Amino acid sequence: MAKPKVSTDWMAGCAGCHMSLLDMDERIAKVAELVDLRSTPITDLKVPDESGVDVGVLEGGVNNTSNEEVAHRMRSRCKILVALGDCAVFGGVPAMRNFFTIEESLRRAYIESESTDESGKIPSDPELCKPTKVRALQEVVPVDVFVPGCPPSADTIFYVLSELAQGRIPDVKDDKLSWY
Amino acid sequence: MVTLTIDGKTIEVPEGTTVLRAAQGAGIDIPTLCDHPHLTPYGGCRLCLVEVEGARTLQPSCTMPVSNNMVVKTDTKKVLDARKFVLTLIFSERNHFCPYCQVSGGDCELQNSAYREGMTHWPLQPNWQPYPVDASHPYIILENNRCILCRRCVRACGELIGNYTLGFEERGARSILVADTGVPLGESTCVSCGACVQVCPTGALIDRWSAYRGHDVALESTKTICVGCSIGCGIKVFTRDNNLVRIDGDWDASINEGVLCEIGHFEPMTEKCDRIHTPMIRKNGSLKAATWEEALSAASAGLQQLKGKSTTSIAAMISTRQPVETIHNFKQLFEKHLGAELVTSTEEGCFTSFVASEAESAGKAFESKLADVRDSDSVMVFAADLLKDHQVAGFFIKRNLPAGTKLLVIDKSDNALDKAANKAIKPGKCGYEDVLKALSSAVVKLGLAKGKTAVKADELSSLAAKTDLTSDDYLDAAFIIASAERPVILYENAESIAALKEFAALINAKLIGLKGGANSLAASQLKLEKTYKSNGFKAAYVALGDDELSQKMTKELESIPFKIIQASYASSATAAADVVFPSTTWLEQGGHYINLEGIVQEAFQALKPAEEVKTIGETLLALSAKLGVTLDGDWTKEMHKRISPVEITR
Question: Model ipTM?
Fold first, then answer.
């Protein structure tokens, strides 16, 4: 059996879940043995193979049209989609923004921010993606495995990846289950 | 008894038990959120749904009474799916994002329930509707976004405290927890007892002080008692790295069953005075930091020269917040060994001396236990303000009023219970004996006397007039208290105790004296009850600890040439002293306390004092060693040497 191909990507998150992934230390060599690590935001290849991968891992919630593209692209190219971390699973800290309108958030960030002078303006270049309400990954595309945690511990991520590498769907529970 | 089967286990429980309690008793764990062992079942959260054979739908086990041959299953797929669905609905209702909340990570019952059911995500996302946050209260924050509408707080506020401040406005998803008619909590009728915070399963009601100071698993907890007043409520003190984090009422304590007042729950967190950290001696007119050795030498030298003279003119006072061991040693040192002219408590026996001599002349205890208040059908509060002091006793009364317990308040000044009372009478300028006479006369007139009295029915109008009240006032009042089957009288003003005792006998009522500080009764048993009278004292020793000295006493002390004070906090009294010893606070020491109903309890140390700070007990021993005397004797025996107004029990 060929090694399962794994791709990861991040959206509206803080990259902390990927840091936690790296935090598994020497076990990452074990993961590299078990899987064929394809694209990740922290390696050279950034986009999952068009021919598809076995496991797609996404960190972060979906908070703009660019994230939507990332989510849809990963979903269409992977067999099993993993939502990694509280932002991907629930929306996380970026979702605090949902209690305000997008206009309010943009005005606060680009005009009313303490570090902005009177020349501050909300970016409106047509090239830019459009901010949306912050959504959990499952609100945009179907998700197969949920790994909550802020971030999930390295142990949990290692467990999830090694289970997937061995063709099993991980059961995240008990001490591997945390939402904070 | 009823026999039923839960998960194949045959269980026998008394009739009226709920399925939930029956299961818990048999060691079968059913998850709950709105249930609380000290509150009436509500059936609001639906997390405890179980399958009952023959029932059409799943049943909430917390409100379902057992019946004979009932077959209950708590772990079928149907039940487990329902639990997950219930949690899904609760999580989708408001902002239950755990990373936003300080109780997450172990202290949140909602989060723990979700972990337990193995929920990795929420199948339904919240709708992002913001609810108001009320941070107007000095101790409590009301965060409606985290509320799960379980109404534990509402039930605690009403059923335990009798205050009925909290309630719900609107219906369904719009339901919102409000104080009174929707006023900010800080401006409401809230009495800051903290019961709502203690029962809240989520972070909807949190206390400002302990927020973010650590989860329960990271905290050390000490079960001890509050020494705020003579009730002696059981508390749990939570500390972290020798810092006070939180105080909760101890649900297992028989005296208060988890209920506390502001003084017990929140006041210890707000230490407003400056601590004294080292001993100090007056040198060239000003207080200078000194070593313990220097301070003890200065104190003993000052006392030594007065020792043994016929009237040595030493005045010695100790706070009733001190443990009985310390009070006993204090008495020994100053009365027996130093022959001090005045050895008394800082209360000067004002709450206890009349009562104690009444007990002595009667030859037996005549007061009753606080538990009688809870069972009473009519309570008379006699010249006692139960919202200023002894608040928990007030809660016991107020919580029973909706069930029909009658309340009569007799007080010359405004009383916090006036509004809750069925009748509040405010006598004018007269003695309380006159009031009791008029009341007795009214009892006789109503034909409700169960004992004898010299007062006659036809004296009522003249007796009433003497107190600036009408006969009708007294007839109403007398009916409330004398028609009851289990009347109880709570009193604080002890001057009219003889008349009060007579009145209690007339209507067959139980008497409960509130007394003063935590060890008021112990001080009284040791006869530390003399009133301070300025008498050319040459030296004064005030073992104040963390208590406050009255302004009057601070002024009286001014004229005494040599003053030794042991106190936790700097005050005008310590500033005027010649020797100052730093003292521990109540949480930094342990010892025994005898509450108002004579129950002996032990307080335990929850915090370590600073290096140079010592207990009054330790200081007394060191001072005795300097003076070449030994303190011995058993305080437990001393407690029974004098007849107590209430039986002293362990």
Answer: 0.92
